[in-house]
């Protein structure tokens, strides 16, 4: 799953606007950023299988990012970093942490059985990637729902929605590009290129935050500028 993860990131910002877009955008792909680095450096492993109908990669070994215990650990670490380093309130920090964990939950429907329930334990995955049309519909549907929630939240705050809509459009373009671009068997391309893309998208989300800063139009709404 690619842009579907960003649907959760977008919706989370409407639940508490102190969870800024760049935080949730980075959070929803934090596990895959770690995975990309680990694959590129040989800590985890994946290989190309052109016979697969949609995503032609087999994820051979990824216990440190995509097992259930690892996903929980990444999520708790993100919560701790949000509180200690970003100094956002507890509720907003939990939203960041839950956004991180949502990555693993959303991977379950699409992955083949390669998501371990514990280290060395049984693996799950429903294999929705074997059905390209429905898999894409799921991705775009999640993005559309999350984007609609985020746009409505920004309108309620009296903030400009144009930068956010541009960001959502960029995600759609990247989803199409990811489908059409040739797949490389090189481990750096398998892991490093996606990780770099996710980091760049977090930087773009930070620009969206600056282009439409939090105002005071909706001070009664959950997630007011206070940091209590």
Label this structure with key terms:
two-stranded antiparallel sheet, globular, two-stranded antiparallel ribbon, 228 residues, single chain
Tally the beta strands: 4
Number of domains: 1
What is Rg? 18 Å
Main sheet record: 2 strands, antiparallel
Strand content is 5-15%
Q: How are the strands of the biggest sheet laid out side by side?
A: 1-2
Shape: globular
Q: SSE order in H/E notation?
A: HHHEEHHHEEHHH
Helix content: 55-70%
> What separation lies between the terminal Cα atoms?
35 Å
The average pLDDT score comes to: 91
Helix-strand category: mainly alpha
Provide the low-confidence segments as ranges. Answer: 216-228
Give the count of helical stretches.
Answer: 9
Short structural summary:
The protein is mainly alpha-helical and 228 residues long. The chain contains nine helices and four strands; from the N terminus they run αααββαααββααα. The model is unreliable at 216-228 (pLDDT under 50).
Commentary on this structure:
The protein has 228 residues and is mainly alpha-helical. It has one domain (3-211). Helices cover 63% and strands 6% of the residues. The chain has nine helices and four strands, in the order H-H-H-E-E-H-H-H-E-E-H-H-H. It has helices at 3-15, 21-28, 30-41, 63-66, 68-84, 90-110, 132-156, 162-180, 187-211, and strands spanning 45-48, 57-61, 115-116, 123-124. The strands form two sheets. It has a two-stranded antiparallel sheet with strand order 1-2. Strands 3-4 form a two-stranded antiparallel sheet. Helix 2 (21-28) runs parallel beside helix 6 and helix 5 runs antiparallel to helix 6.
């Amino acid at each position: 799953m690619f842009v579907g993860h960003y649907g959760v990131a977008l919706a989370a910002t409407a639940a508490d606007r102190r969870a800024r877009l760049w935080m949730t955008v980075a959070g929803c792909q934090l596990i895959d950023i770690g995975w990309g680095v680990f694959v590129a450096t040989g800590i985890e492993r994946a290989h190309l299988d052109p016979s697969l109908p949609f995503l032609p990669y087999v994820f051979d070994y990824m216990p440190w990012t995509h097992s259930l215990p690892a996903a929980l650990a990444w999520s708790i670490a993100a919560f701790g970093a949000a509180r200690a380093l970003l100094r956002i309130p507890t509720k907003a920090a939990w939203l960041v942490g839950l956004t991180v964990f949502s990555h693993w939950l959303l991977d379950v429907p699409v992955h083949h059985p390669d998501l371990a329930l514990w280290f060395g334990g049984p693996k799950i995955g429903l294999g929705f990637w074997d059905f390209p049309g429905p898999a894409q519909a799921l991705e775009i549907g999640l993005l559309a729902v999350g984007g609609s929630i985020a746009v409505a939240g920004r309108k309620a705050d009296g903030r400009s929605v144009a930068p956010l809509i541009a960001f959502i459009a960029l995600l759609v373009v990247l989803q199409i590009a990811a489908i059409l671009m040739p797949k490389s068997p090189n481990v750096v391309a398998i892991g490093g290129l996606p990780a770099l893309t996710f980091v760049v998208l977090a930087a773009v989300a930070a620009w969206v935050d600056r282009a439409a800063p939090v105002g005071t139009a909706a001070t009664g709404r959950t997630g007011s500028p206070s940091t209590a």
